[in-house]
Design a protein that fits this description.
Elements lengths: L10 E4 L17 E2 L8 H15 L2 E4 L6 H14 L4 E4 L5 H14 L6 H11 L4 E6 L12 H6 L7 E6 L3 E4 L14 E6 L6 H8 L5 E5 L4 H5 L4 E7 L3 H9 L3 E3 L6 E3 L19 H8 L1
Parallel strand pairs: 1-2, 1-3, 3-4, 8-9
Antiparallel strand pairs: 5-6, 5-10, 6-7, 8-10, 11-12
Length: 293
């Protein structure tokens, strides 16, 4: 970037409009929505992505494990054709609503003085502070959280409802008086996306978790795929204050990626996927002398 040019924040992208949550505060940068890339002519999609890189310098695409395969294939193809190391794909093991929350947190942090590498790798850190789950009308097709045979059998009983926590620690309980899930040990906000189900239990859970408040958003289209049913209510408890998020990220030691040179936090560079090299321990001096004899 030339001296005097206006710094444009690193772009945080999602793969559909329903994953671009409303701004949390006035500093939250807009999400880049890469919707319909797989349906556009390749040259048009390539031009679109190239323009984004010219405007922002770096692009972090946050998507779920339920993102359709054609979308992912097109994204990887575009990055390969651009031969760019300035595009990062981040696909943590989170349900879709949790992915949307994480993308918004990165959009909040994009307005701060964080380098692209630190911002991209902050996603892995922030996942530890998300509590993502759902109320389900059936767990018969749930394969992302361990489900016992008894729960599978109960799921066929009409009217049964289950509370499932997918992250950070898998939990599953049948909803009954007094049923609860282990929650965060810090105060959060809770986001709720309602599918084809009505239940007051999520509000009760928010009270037990002492959340600041509940906010409702449309259920992401990928959620029924991820959870195996449309009879659901998805929820995610999260930290919303930018100053807290910034303090968490900046309190972690930064290092330089040994491969691409980006400043990162953690043990993996999100842009080039390199991990720190493993150094073999030095041989004892006596052995070295014996080998040279």
């Amino acid at each position: 970037m030339k001296s005097g040019e206006l710094r444009v924040p690193t772009a945080i992208a999602v793969t559909s409009a329903d994953m671009a949550l409303p701004a949390q505060d006035e500093r939250t940068v807009p999400a880049v929505v890469l919707s319909g890339l797989e349906h556009k002519p390749l040259e048009h999609a390539l031009t679109e992505l190239h323009t984004l890189l010219e405007q922002h310098g770096y692009l972090v695409v946050v998507c779920s494990r339920a993102t359709p395969e054609p979308v992912l294939q097109r994204l990887y193809t575009l990055r390969a054709l651009l031969e760019s190391d300035r595009i990062a794909f981040f696909r943590p093991e989170l349900p879709p609503l949790g992915i949307a929350v994480l993308a918004r947190q990165l959009r909040q942090l994009a307005s701060c003085d964080l380098s692209p590498g630190v911002l991209a790798s902050a996603g892995r850190l922030l996942t530890h502070y998300l509590h993502a789950g759902a109320v389900l009308g059936s767990v018969a097709r749930l394969d992302r959280v361990p489900v016992g045979l008894k729960a599978h059998a109960r799921s066929w009983v009409p009217g049964s409802q289950f509370a499932v926590l997918a992250h950070p620690e898998p939990q599953l309980v049948k909803i009954a008086p007094g049923a609860t899930l282990k929650g965060p040990e810090f105060t959060t906000w809770m986001l709720v996306g309602k599918g084809q189900m009505h239940s007051e239990w999520v509000g009760e859970l928010g009270g037990r978790w002492s959340v600041h408040g509940l906010r409702e958003v449309p259920l992401p289209a990928e959620s029924p795929v991820w959870w195996g049913t449309g009879r659901m209510i998805e929820f995610c408890a999260h930290l919303a204050d930018l100053s807290v998020l910034y303090q968490l990220v900046t309190s972690v030691r930064q290092t330089s990626c040994h491969w691409c040179g980006m400043d990162v936090i953690g043990d993996r560079c999100v842009f080039c996927s390199a991990t720190p090299p493993v150094h073999e321990p030095s041989a004892p001096r006596a052995l070295e002398q014996g080998a040279s004899a």
